[in-house]
Description:
Strand 5, helix 6 and strand 6 form a beta-alpha-beta unit. The protein is of the alpha/beta class and about 325 residues long. Strands 6-5-4-3-2-1-7-8 form an 8-stranded mixed beta sheet. Helices cover about 40% and strands about 15% of the residues. The longest helix is centred in the N-terminal third of the chain and has 19 residues, at about 1-20. Helix 2 runs parallel beside helix 3 (about 85-90) and helix 11 packs across helix 12 (about 310-320). The protein has one domain (about 20-285): Alpha-Beta Barrel (TIM Barrel), CATH 3.20.20.
Amino acid sequence: MLQTLRRYNTAWNFFKHLSEESFFGGGLDITNRCNLRCTHCYWWRQKKNPDLNDEQMIAFMKDLRRKGLKVIYLLGGEPLLRPNICAEAGKIFDFIMIFTNGTLGYPPVNNALYSLSIDGPERVHDKLRGKGIFKKVTNILDNQSTKVMIHITVCRSNRDHLKETVEHFVNRKNVRGIYFCFYCPSVVPGDKNTETIPLQERDDVIDEIVGYRRKYGEKIFFTDRVGYYLKTNGGVDRWNSLSKCITKKLFEFYAADGKYKYHCAYGAEAECKNCGCSQVPLMHAMQDRDLETCLMSYKDYWGMPYHDNFLFNAFVKYKIGQPG
Ligand code: SF4
Ligand code: SF4
């Protein structure tokens, strides 16, 4: 109960940080290990320093909390290879989001939201992640009780299969909703970035996703205003460069050895001008006080009352300075 109140309080304070563009949260690779070898993933190909051990990792997370980091993304590798660290993070931070490939279940963690990466329908998902993985992941999802967010990274391989993927998951048991980002290419020489969809081509995909929002409502975690900030004839120019991106002001990211990584989850090699992050557009939409985006964020992301509640909506309007 106390922790839920702490999370709510932190959620309401997010506006203050957003307005001031001040430090708020971050991400931590709690392990470099992964139990999959996805073809589109650079992670397992890179040489990395050893992970901090359990004791060091817990002490490190407590230091981050003292430093002012209130919310944290637990990343990897596959974070659930260290379930004890996930559980400890739930006690330390006000809100955590665990990004998982879904093969290891969803152990209960305080104040946690699970984000399950899905690349497409079975044939697409398995082509990228390995034979049988889709069935394994969906069986696990269906046969437990935690509600999870589905995270689709739109790329060349799945661009033409979005409708099928959305239909497959949107009303599925244990799915809270679906959110999207675009594959972010890297600037490392030799990286072919064959999954990249150029900015101009993305515009149509964004319209398609906004169409799903109109059809399926709040289960699609992507508003018109978020789409606007990803489009070439919208607001993408306002943020898609290192000098302009707001992420580095609000978030810090750390590697599994405890070293500062970079100011965004994609790391130092990300090509900002073709960035496909949907969190930055979300933050801009909230800075604009777009009511639909703010309600979506509070209900879906922060896990506040999910149903359409008059009082809740009125309070959000008051909070963002809109007439009730
Ligand atoms: S599950 Fe994630 S970290 Fe692991 S190989 Fe696949 S994309 Fe990479
Ligand atoms: S790659 Fe990272 S720093 Fe660059 S624009 Fe995207 S979110 Fe911002």
